[in-house]
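Each lists chain and fold; for instance:
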Amino acid sequence: MKKADKKPQLRACSVCKKPGHNKSRCPEFLASEVKMDNEKIPGVQMFLHDEQIQYRSPHLVDLKKPSDPWSTIEAVAPEISAPSLYDAFMKEEPEAKPEIKFIAPKIITMPILPDDLRTKAKTNNSSRLSAFSSAFSTWRDNHAAKKSLAKMERELQTKLASEKKPEQIIEKEKIQPETTAVPTHYSHINRGRLALNLAWRAAVVALILITPFKANSFYQTVKSTTGQIALDGTQGFMALQDSTSALLQSNLTGAQDSVVIALQKFDSAVKAMNDNYSILQKIAASVPILSGEVQSRQNIITAGQKIALGNTYLIKGIGESQNNSELNLTDRVKILTNHLNAAIPNYESALADMAAVDAGVLPTEYQKTFIDFRVLFTAFLDDLNNLADLGKAVDEIFGGQGLRRYLIVFQNPAEIRPTGGFIGSFAVLDMKDGQIDNIDIPAGGSYDLQGQLDLSVEPPTPLLLSNKRWEFQDANWFADFPSSAENLMRFYRHSRQVTADGVIAINATVLERLLAIMGPVTDAARSVELTSSTALSSIQTVVEEGAEKSANKPKQIISDLAPQFINYIYNAKPESVLPLMNSLADALEQKEIQAYFSDTSAEQIMRDFGWSGQILPTEDNQDYLMVVNANIQGQKSDAEIKQTISHQAIVAEDGSVIDTVVITREHTGNAGDKFYGQTNIDYVRLYVPEGSELISAGGFTWPDEKKFRAPESWTSKDIFLASVEKELGYDAKSGTRLTNEFGKTALGNWLIVQPGETRQIQFTYKLPFKVISDETKADENILQKIVKNDTATSRYQLVVQRQSGSNSEFESQIIYPSPWYPSWNEGVDSTLAQNGMGINKFALINDQVWSLLMKNEKN
C-alpha cells in the first residue's frame, strides 16, 4: 500500500533550536563568531535569510566603491616591446622565447628569416665573395700551373668543338702528365675513359676557378630575369588564392579557372628558368649566393605547382560529390575525404618548399604578400588535416557503419543549467548511411519519460528544491558535458529500455542563428511566424499557454516545425552552405552545440576540435576558473540576468598565490513578468585548481529550507553521482560545500536575486602551487632558454572556461610583489602593468587562456 505523502522534513538548529536552518547558517551563532574591526574597510555583505551581517576578507576588493578597485596598478609600456604570440614563435632566433605550455589550440607556423637577419646574411655573402676573389687572385698569380691551366682550357674547347670521337682526340693529342697537372698514377687508366674524365674535370675546374671573376656578371644575369620569374610565380600564387576562395564558396568553375591561370603562370616561370639557367644553375651550385637565389625561385615555382595540384584534387572531389544526386551523405563525405587525403601530401610538400624560400629574392611589392600567404597557408593546411580527421569520424557518426541512435536534447539558457540550460524537450534520431531513418520528438517533452523511469535514486541535494528523485530532465547536472551525456543516456535507457550511441545538446540560440540565415518560418496551424528575434518568446508562449498544454502535449509545436528546418538544411542552396557552415562553427566554438559519442574515436575527435564540452585538464602549475550556474525553480529569469566575474590573483613574496573571485549578478527583469520576472534562484559552483584551500566566502542567500523536498523512502543514494562528486566537506562559517570533481576543487553555494536587485558573492582561496620557488630560480636551463642569467623568472597562466549558455563578463588582475616586473604576456584584452597584468572586462563567449612571464633582477 502506498504511503501517504509526508510533510517536508525540517532540521532544527542546535544553537537557537529554531527550524529552517542549521548551526552553520544560524544568525546567532555567526554573530558570536564574527569579529568586526571598525578600523578596517568593510567587506562584502553576506545575507542570511535576508538578515545582513558584515563579512570581510583581507584579500577582497570592494567593487561597490565608485573608484577603480584596481587603482593600485599603473599600466605602463614594458621596457622592451613584448612580442605577440605570432612573433614569439615565428622567428628563428627570438630574443626571449617563453617556454609556456598552452591549452589553446596549436598554431602551426613555419620559420621566416627576419629582415635584420636577412640583411646580415646578404652582407656576409658579399664579404665571403670578396674574400674568395682575393684569395683566388693570389693563388692564380703565384701558382706554377697557371700556363698549363690556360693551355688546358684552350685544348678542351678545341676538343669539344671537334666532331671526332674522344678516343681519336686523345690518340692525336697526347697530353704529358708533367704539363697537364694530371697525377702520374692515372697513366694506367684506359685512354678513352681518361679522356672523358679529363674533359669533365677540366670543365668543372674551369668553372670553379673562373666563377669568382665572372660572379658579378652572372649575378647581374640572375637579377635581370628575376623580375619576370618572380612576377609569374607571384601572380600564380594570387590565382591560387582566388581558387581557394572560390572553393570555399562552392564556385567550382571559378576555382578551376583560377587553377588554370596559376598553372600557366608557373609554366611561364619554369620556361624562363629552363631557358636562362640550365648552365647557370650548375655554376650557382658552387657559389652560395647564386645558389640560394636560384633555389628560392625554383621552390616558389614547385610550391605553386603542388598547391595547384592539391586544389585540383579538391575541385574534383567536390564536383563528384555534388553532381551525383543519388549519393547519400556518408558516400559524399567518403569521396571528399579521399580527395582531401590525396591533396594534403601535395600541400605539405608545397609548404616545405615555401619554407625554404627567401622572400628577399622577390620584387619588393610582392614580398609581404608572399610572407602572408605562407603563414595563412600553414593555417589552411592545419585546417585541412583537421577536416580529414573529421571525415573519418563522420562515417561513424552518420551511420556509415550501420544504424546509429542519438539523443538530441534542446536546452533553454533562459533557465540556466550546468551544460547550457533546462532540457524541456528532446528528440530521438536514427541515422543510417547518412540519412535520417527516423526522428521522434515527444509532444510532452522531457517529462514524457517520468512515468516510464524504473530508476529511483536521490538527486543532487540542490535539486531537492524541485524534485524528490532524479529524472531525465535534470540529468545534465554536471558541467562536464561527457559526464552529463552519459547520465542522460542512463536515464533514457532506464525509461525506454533501449540504448543510445551518443548525445547532442543544442541550445535555443542555435534556432535564432538558423532563422537569421533561412528567414521567417510560419506555423500555419497556430498562426505563428518565427523570426530570429521573436522565435524563443513565441515558442515559449505556445508551450506555456497554447491549447496543447491541456492535452499534455506542450512541445507539439517543436515536433511540427522540425521537418521544415531539416528539409532546409538537407536541401540548402549553394549560396547558403557557407553561411550555414560558418554559423555552425561559431555555435560549436561557443558551446551552443555540444556532442558526445560512445564510439571512442569519434569522441576523441570531438575533444580534439573542442566540441565535447568537457572540463579541460590542466597542468599542476596552471590557475583555472569556471563559474557554473544552475537555476532551480527560478523560471526563465536568467534571460534577464547580467553576470560579472571579477578575478584577482595576488602573488606573495614566497610565490604562493591567493585568488579572490567576486561574482556580481544583476536582475534586470520586471517583477511580476510571468516568464522572465521571477526571482532568480541560483546554485553557484566555482571550479578551481584541485587542492585549492578555501580561506573565506560570503554574500550568499539560501532558499527557504521548508521548500526542499525530502526523498522518498524507497529511493537510494546514486552511485554514479557519488563517483563524480567526491565529498570534501562544508565550510563552517559560510556553509560552502567543497567537492572534488573532474580533477578540480568545486565550491558550491546559493545566491538569490530579486527583480531589480544586484547582489555579490565572493570566494577567496589559496592555490595549491607556487609561481616563485627556489627550484625555478636555480634552474639554469630554463633561465638560459628564457632570459639572461642575471634574472629570475616566474610564470603564471590562467585558464578560464565558459559555461554553455551563460551571459557573463570577465575581468582579472594578476599582482606580483616588488621588485618583480613583467617581461611577456599573451591573452585577449590583457595589458601589462608595472607589477603584473590586467585583463579588461569583456564578454566571455568561449574558453580563454592568459599567460604572464615576470622577471626579478638578482641582487
Notes: The first strand starts at residue 45 and ends at 48.
